[in-house]
Amino acid sequence: MRLLVVLFFTLISVGCALKPEPAPLLSMPKKPSLQSQRFQVEYQTEHAAPKVKSVQLPAHVVSTHQTVVIVADKTSVTDTLYAQLAEALTAKQLKVVEEGAQADYTLSIHQLDLELIEDTEYQLVKPEKLLPLFDEVAKQFPVQKCATILGQVSMRLTHKKTGDVVWFAKSSIDSASFHREPLIYSFEQQQLIKNELEVASFVHEQNSEQARMERINKEVTIPAYQTFTQVNAFKKEQGPCNRTEISALTPMMQYYLSSILIDKIKVQ
């Protein structure tokens, strides 16, 4: 009986010894070094000079050190703009007094309007040194459209004693012509692996027990990684464009247009 047991284990050992060793496990190939670069492109639009109309009548001569009261009951003049108007008049050597006080002239603010108009188109500028993928960017983003505000200001200077209009003027400008900044956008040229899942699936399948037995003494070629390049994260870096950004320009636009007009007053 003992002899039969020994013989049985001997046969098992011989069978195990005759079973071939499976092919070794495959390792995932090393991924290629992926490149990533960031570039900037510029968009520009045409700008127009402010439209200004100023007429001064000869009925009264405006002289230095005469007094002026600012009246803005028809418009919403902020404290900041009021102070800026007073400063501009002072620079013309006129003295600003409070409303209700005796004054030689009344400066009436008749119009202080801001309205949204048709969007402004900014065209992509071709750089002197062509960027990688510039043609693709030009195809996808040839134009940027930005919200645009038209600002208009009109004023009148009246001689208080006689009620005679001494001077009247109007100015206007759109927000794109006012800020004159180009739009700067950035984009990232990123290299990615196209077939990473395919390579991982191949290695996983070839590492199964059955596949390892089938490829004993056989060479298997793991698929090579394939890369491709794409443009990511195209975003604005500089320049006002949306309504919130454009609206933030309005105090400066109002001051700019107002100061242009006051500068037109001829003071002797």
* Amino- and carboxy-terminal Cα gap: 137 Å
The number of helical runs is 8
Order of helices and strands: HEEEHEEHEEHEHHEHH
How many DSSP E strands?
9
Write the layout of secondary structure elements.
Blueprint: H1 2-18, E1 36-44, E2 51-56, E3 67-71, H2 79-91, E4 95-97, E5 105-125, H3 134-140, E6 143-159, E7 165-174, H4 175-179, E8 183-193, H5 196-206, H6 209-214, E9 227-238, H7 243-247, H8 250-263
Parallel strand pairs: 3-4, 3-5
Antiparallel strand pairs: 1-5, 1-8, 2-7, 5-6, 6-7, 8-9
Helix pairs in contact: 2-8
Describe the structure.
The chain is 29% helix and 35% strand. By secondary structure, it is α+β, with helices and mostly antiparallel strands. Strands 1, 2, 3, 4, 5, 6, 7, 8 and 9 form a 9-stranded mixed beta sheet that branches. Strand 3, helix 2 (79-91) and strand 4 form a beta-alpha-beta unit. The longest helix is centred in the N-terminal third of the chain and has 17 residues, at 2-18.
Features:
268 residues, alpha+beta, 9-stranded mixed sheet, 8 helices, 9 strands
Question: In brief, what are we looking at here?
Answer:
This protein has helices at residues 2-18, 79-91, 134-140, 175-179, 196-206, 209-214, 243-247, 250-263; strands spanning 36-44, 51-56, 67-71, 95-97, 105-125, 143-159, 165-174, 183-193, 227-238. By secondary structure, it is of the alpha+beta class.
